[in-house]
Specification:
Shape: globular
CATH architecture of the domain at 123-203: 3-Layer(aba) Sandwich
Low-confidence stretches: 1-47
Strand order of the largest sheet: 2-1-3-4
Number of helices: 8
Structural class: alpha+beta
Radius of gyration: 32 Å
CATH class of the domain at 123-203: Alpha Beta
Largest sheet: 4 strands, mixed
CATH superfamily of the domain at 123-203: Glutaredoxin
Length: 206
């Protein structure tokens, strides 16, 4: 029995030796990974993982504010500049980055008339619906504008010419009711004066 076991033991030797070139064969594979890792790293520094460079620029703003929650308005301003308007997915992204409830981010975005949740038109009309303006006829003005433009507040005409928006307060209570036409605040407005102004936009006269 001892004589029979000797060749079996000897037979294992070449099997052990045969593993050596397999171990050595891993070296070039390991080295081959180096340029792949370097290429991926460079790409990540130039674009956002989503592929949208605007998000990378927004991330830079958020980082500059050190992810502070009280910098929400400044960050929303930057997002609005980059994207043109604040769509829901963008608001959720900001809420996630700042660790804020989405409801709070949405509330701030809808409170200030400078922020829009939909693409803006060439001309923008913002009706103040604050208490003073409401008492002096803001709702009647808004209804007249909706009838004239054939759109609801918060929408833009199909041709992209006019956006009709509302604001909770413009801080112009002394000249209520107030309406903003392309950034210019006009007070003591009526249904007739605002529809006349919007009519000029529709006719292309201004």
């Amino acid at each position: 029995m001892t004589v029979i076991n000797l060749p079996i033991t000897n037979y294992q030797l070449p099997i052990t030796n045969y593993q050596l070139p397999i171990t050595n064969y891993q070296s070039p594979i390991t080295n081959y990974q180096l340029p792949i890792i370097m290429t991926t790293s460079v790409k990540e520094t130039s674009t956002h993982p989503s592929g949208d460079k605007r998000l990378k620029m927004l991330d830079a703003t958020i980082k500059r504010h050190q992810y502070q929650q009280d910098a929400l308005i400044e960050i929303l301003h930057r997002a609005s500049e980059l994207f043109g308007y604040l769509e829901l997915d963008l608001l959720l992204y900001i809420a996630h980055q700042l660790k804020l409830p989405p409801s709070r981010v949405y509330g701030v975005a809808t409170f200030y008339h400078l922020f829009s949740l939909a693409p803006k038109g060439k001309h923008n009309c913002v009706v103040c619906t604050g208490t003073a303006c409401y008492v002096k006829g803001a709702q009647a003005i808004l209804t007249s504008l909706e009838n004239t433009t054939k759109i609801k507040a918060g929408d833009t005409t199909p041709d992209g010419e006019i956006s009709l928006l509302t604001a909770r307060c413009l801080g112009a209570c002394g000249i209520a009711p107030a309406v903003v036409f392309d950034g210019a605040v006009l007070g003591n407005q009526t249904s007739e004066t605002v529809c006349e102004k919007v009519g000029e936009w529709q006719n292309g006269t201004k």
